[in-house]
Specification:
The chain is an all-alpha fold and 260 residues long. It is 56% helix and 0% strand.
Length: 260
C-alpha cells in the first residue's frame, strides 16, 4: 500500500511521454470521431512544439482529455488550452537553458514536469531552485512532479519546494521523494491543517516519512497512506489544469511566466 502513491505519480510522468509513442494524435482523434478541423488544429500545435524541440506528450494528452469532454467544452477552448500548455513547455525549456542543465535523454521528462509545476502556479525561481538542487535529471523530474502534486493538495508552494528540496539534498534514490505526498496525506488524516503542515516543514520539522528518514525526520511515523489529487475546478481548462494555487492564508506567489 505504501508504494501506491509513488507509483501513481511516476506513472503520470511516464504517461506524458508514452502518449506521443502511441501513434499520431491527429489520426487518433479522427478515429475517435473528432471534427477534422479540430484534429488538424491539434496537429499544428503539436508540430509547432516539436519544431521547438519541446516534448509533445503533455499537449497530446490534453488534446485527448479535451476531446473526451467535447459535450461540455467547445473545441476552440480546448485548442486555447493546448496553446497555453505549449507556452508553459517553452518556458520550462528556457528555465533549463538558463539553469545550464544538461538533460540529454531526460530532457522531455524534466521539461514536462517543469511545465506542470508552472501550471500549478509555481514561479520560475521555484522551478529553477528544484532543478538546481537535484543531483540528476531523473531526480529533477521527480522533484518537480512531487512539488506540483503537493501544491495540488493545497500546500503553499514555498513549503512544497522546501520539503522537496530538503529531500533531494538528503540523498538516496530519486524515488524517495515520491513518498512526500502520502506523508502529507497522513498528517492531514491525523488532523493537521494545511497551515500546520506548512509550518512544520518551514520550521525544519519536515514530513513524517516512513522509517523517519530524509525530509520526514522530525515527527513520528505512521502508515504511508495513498492519496488522490483533488480535481481542479478551473472552468477555462477543459483538461483539468488548475487556474491558481490553493494556498492557506494567501501565501505564495503567482507564476511570473506565461501561465494560462
Amino acid at each position: 500500500m505504501k508504494r501506491m502513491w509513488a507509483l501513481a505519480i511516476a506513472m503520470t510522468v511516464l504517461g506524458q511521454a508514452a502518449v506521443a509513442q502511441d501513434g499520431d494524435v491527429v489520426s487518433r482523434l479522427r478515429a475517435a470521431g473528432a471534427d477534422p478541423q479540430f484534429a488538424e488544429r491539434v496537429g499544428e500545435i503539436v508540430t509547432a512544439a516539436r519544431d521547438e524541440g519541446l516534448p509533445t506528450g503533455p499537449i497530446e494528452e490534453k488534446a485527448i482529455e479535451g476531446w473526451a469532454k467535447r459535450h461540455r467544452v467547445p473545441p476552440e477552448r480546448v485548442t486555447a488550452v493546448l496553446e497555453q500548455v505549449r507556452l508553459r513547455l517553452r518556458e520550462a525549456h528556457q528555465i533549463m537553458v538558463e539553469s545550464r542543465v544538461e538533460l540529454r535523454e531526460r530532457h522531455g521528462e524534466t521539461v514536462a514536469a517543469a511545465a506542470e509545476a508552472l501550471g500549478r502556479n509555481m514561479t520560475r525561481e521555484q522551478v529553477r531552485e528544484l532543478v538546481q538542487a537535484a543531483p540528476t535529471p531523473e531526480a529533477a523530474a521527480a522533484g518537480l512532479t512531487v512539488a506540483a502534486s503537493l501544491v495540488a493538495q493545497g500546500l503553499e508552494a514555498g513549503a512544497a519546494v522546501y520539503a522537496v528540496r530538503t529531500q533531494l539534498r538528503a540523498g538516496g534514490p530519486p524515488e524517495r521523494v515520491y513518498e512526500l505526498p502520502s506523508a502529507m496525506a497522513d498528517m492531514r488524516a491525523r488532523g493537521a491543517t494545511l497551515s500546520d503542515v506548512a509550518g512544520q516543514i518551514m520550521q525544519g520539522g519536515g514530513l513524517p516519512m516512513p522509517g523517519g528518514a530524509g525530509a520526514g525526520a522530525g515527527t513520528g511515523s505512521g502508515p504511508n497512506r495513498p492519496s488522490v489529487l483533488p480535481p481542479s475546478r478551473n472552468p477555462t481548462d477543459p483538461a483539468g489544469q488548475p487556474g491558481g494555487n490553493q494556498q492557506p492564508g494567501g501565501q505564495g506567489k503567482k507564476n511570473q511566466g506565461g501561465n494560462g
